[in-house]
Amino acid sequence: MPDWTPHDLTDLATAKRLLETPGLAARLTSLLGTPLERGFHLLPANWNARIQAATHRALEKALTVALGTMADPPTPATAPTTAPRSPGNRLHKGLVAATGAGGGAFGLAALAVELPISTTIMLRSIADVARSQGEDLASIPGRLACLEVFALGGRSPGDDASESGYFLVRAALAKAIGEATEHIAARGAARESAPALVRLISVIAARFGVVVSEKAAAVAVPVLGAAGGAAINVLFLDHFQRMAQGHFTVRRLERTYGGEAVRAAYLRLPG
After folding, report:
1. Which pTM does this prediction carry?
2. Element (H or E) spanning 30, and its range?
3. Which of 60, 147, 166, 176 is least enclosed, having the fewest CB within 10 Å?
């Protein structure tokens, strides 16, 4: 196993900073100029069920995209896979700003329509980050790793403080991702209502829904209409771009140094 280079250790430290300090709620509070809790109080009585339903629909759409249209052509065996390149994030931010502007004009009522669209755009952006770190999106694990990003930076209602770390989230997802990978390998992706795929969506939705709730609370606060909706969506996407950058940096380093070595080095880093 190769020795760690200073550059790779710096990359790992940056990844840990991105993954362990997501701070979407704080950034939304700064944008709104008012505590996000005010937005939660303004949400309607049935908001939780509506957000859960919208979250599941958005992830089902994302799964369809991930398994059907997101693959890269196979990478030649001689091509380098460890040198990162910069992803094109600006295009995706422009697209989600446009969807957020439309949603912002109608408030929370537009969430059910807007969220699947913005989530699909975010998935494309996550995939672009994955490619920038040499991820093989022709493989099922590579594509499911893109979906995994939606579970990062949000805590399940059953979490305690000791269960919020990046590697513990990955461990919590590992069984569902493994079962989904086996199902797809054996039967293909035609039956997206298969139990293995439903379980994967449910596990990710438990965490993604927390961040969607924060977004919904921000939308509920009276802001500058369409402009406010666009700004909220850009922050929402930026959050998951940061999670993706950290996640796929770790995965790139795991391909070089091995999973256990990367985890040990990650845990030794401060923060």
Report:
1. 0.84
2. helix 24-32
3. 60
CA atoms of 178 and 43, how far apart (whole Å): 37
Q: Around Cβ 249, how many Cβ atoms within 10 Å?
A: 23
In order of 13, 45, 119, 202, the CA distances from 177 in angstroms are 26, 34, 19, 11
Pull the structure tokens for residue 165. Answer: 């770390």
CA distance 258 to 249: 13
Quote the CA–CA distance of 196 and 181 in Å, as a whole number.
9
Helix (H, G, I), strand (E, B) or coil at 267: helix
CA distance linking residue 146 with residue 134, whole number of Å: 13
Q: What is the pLDDT along the chain (271 residues), one digit of tens a residue?
A: 679 999 999 999 999 999 987 678 888 888 888 888 888 888 888 888 888 998 999 999 888 888 776 655 444 444 444 445 565 555 545 555 555 544 444 456 667 777 888 888 888 889 989 999 999 999 999 999 999 999 997 665 555 544 458 999 999 999 999 999 998 888 776 565 688 999 999 999 999 999 989 888 887 777 655 567 778 878 888 889 999 999 999 999 999 999 999 999 999 998 6
**Cβ partners under 8 Å of residue 161, min gap 6:** none
| CB 235, CB 28: distance < 8 Å | yes
What are 260's two structure tokens?
């256990």
- What the block records as the tokens of 76 is 């030649």
